[in-house]
Design brief:
By secondary structure, the protein is mostly helical. It contains 20 helices and no strands. Among the domains are: 78 residues; 152 residues, no CATH class.
């Protein structure tokens, strides 16, 4: 279908002396000034000049960018963009959304943002934002399903099954090829196939299952943004997904989001924040989670406490995780928890022992994790190998460390993971600290698979 060129936009750009690339850069800068991130390029500008459509918020940023250049107020209408009146900048995406409707608006806006277009390795949430969100979730009551949804389309369990099947597929892509591999496909599917269903008609049973499945998909978007290195975007997805779980009172998925947030904070060296988030996940899910889920949440509390150097607390959390895992087969778990097996638990523990400076235990548990981890979890296997290489190095076995690190690098070539490229979640300063703790620690007995606490 032919489109009429946007002569108004072309005229204003000419008056401002703005090239396609120059305008695209200014639009990105304006968006960032508002706490937002857009992927505008010169290709998008040319599409607008040719008469192509534009998102309402982006149109507002274009008007502000050209207005700044010309030193006068511009509106999207002045630029030939129809029905694109300015809307508030999405600063609300930085905090815990107030309502289900706002949650869905934020999530829809996030699906237009690419991880590669935002700042890398930069957090966007303050401690007060995070602590407030954790507290609000902990004391929340379910909102209940929307009752004013139009009946033009009815959602059934087949639709829910399709979303869960897609989530499983995307999750495996993430494990095997990294978060950067398919984030675009994640975003498109979530925006075009999942979000519209949340605004359709459904029974109470279908609606609850639908929102739970949507939360699974949304947390994958959060996780893949994190793995791609865009922590600001991941923060927003996680905060909004946490709020999404509140609609139906899905405490287990909410706890999983808090665990993911703890994992990310730990990776960024924010140990106190990681501890708070992990403990919130444990306490928030304790009444409803299966033993396998509780093992996961307690293991991540142990990870955060290990990074903090809390030997006693980490030992307690590891023992608690192990006790829960011993009863893992006594309950029916959600499908998304299938990856939490013995290899995953031991892998979490090897990270803990490394960070605590318990080098012999770190080597032993990392070796076992590498042995047990299914190669389809390529990223997890790579991290376990890196922990093993670091621990072997700290243990004085340079040749083994070099060999193990070589295997990790070689096997990880296909992974599009910013975390994996950095070699794991522990900076060099932590490795040095672990070495110092190991040298200073008096002789004592090592932990064992049956007793995961520190000696």
């Amino acid at each position: 279908m032919s489109r009429d060129p946007n002569h108004q936009l072309a005229a204003v750009m000419a008056e401002a002396g703005a090239s396609n690339k120059g305008l695209a850069k200014r639009v990105r800068e304006v968006a960032q000034r508002h706490g937002d991130y857009v992927g505008t390029t010169h290709v998008a500008v040319q599409r607008w000049l040719d008469g192509g459509g534009i998102q309402r918020q982006t149109a507002a940023y274009v008007a502000e960018a050209l207005g700044d250049k010309l030193r006068r107020r511009m509106t999207p209408k002045d630029l030939g963009f129809p029905d694109t009146s300015p809307v508030p900048a999405p600063g609300y995406a930085m905090r815990y959304p107030d309502s289900p409707a706002e949650t869905l608006r934020v999530l829809e806006s996030l699906t237009h943002q690419r991880p590669e277009d935002g700042p890398v390795d930069e957090a966007s949430l303050s401690d007060s934002d995070v602590h407030s969100a954790a507290l609000l979730w902990l004391v929340s009551r379910p909102d209940g399903l929307p009752t004013d949804a139009p009946a033009t389309r009815r959602v059934g369990m087949r639709d829910v099954a399709a979303i869960r099947t897609a989530a499983g597929f995307f999750m495996q892509l993430d494990f095997q090829f990294g978060g950067g591999h398919a984030h675009k496909a994640f975003r498109h599917y979530f925006r075009e196939d999942v979000l519209p269903l949340l605004c359709a008609g459904y029974s109470a049973k279908v609606g609850k299952a639908l929102f739970q499945a949507a939360s699974e998909m949304s947390q994958l978007l959060a996780w893949s943004a994190y793995d791609s290195g865009n922590h600001a975007l991941s923060d927003r997805y996680m905060m909004s997904t946490l709020r999404l779980t509140q609609i139906t009172g899905d405490r287990v998925m909410g706890a999983r989001i808090l665990t993911n947030m703890s994992h990310q904070a730990n990776y960024q060296g924010q140990a106190p924040r990681a501890v708070v988030l992990a403990r919130a996940s444990v306490e928030g899910a304790r009444a409803t989670a299966t033993p396998r889920a509780m093992a996961l949440f307690c293991a991540h509390e142990a990870r955060a406490l290990s990074t903090s150097g809390d030997h006693q607390g980490a030992g307690r959390a590891m023992n608690e995780a192990e006790r829960h895992f011993e009863r893992a087969d006594s309950a029916v778990d959600p499908e998304w928890l299938s990856y939490m097996d013995e290899a995953e638990l031991i892998g979490e523990f090897c990270h803990c022992f490394r960070d605590l400076g318990q080098v012999p235990d770190a080597v032993r548990f990392a070796e076992r994790a590498v042995e047990l981890t299914d190669p389809k979890y390529a990223r997890t296997l790579g991290f376990c190998r890196m922990v093993l290489a670091q621990s072997q190095l700290l243990n004085g076995d340079l040749e083994a460390a070099v060999t193990t690190a070589g295997l990790a690098v070689e096997a990880g070539d296909a992974l599009q993971s910013a975390r994996r490229r950095r070699g794991g979640a522990v900076p060099a300063r932590q490795t040095r600290a672990a070495r110092q703790r190991h040298r200073a620690r008096p002789p004592g007995r090592s932990g064992s698979p049956g007793h995961c606490g520190p000696p």
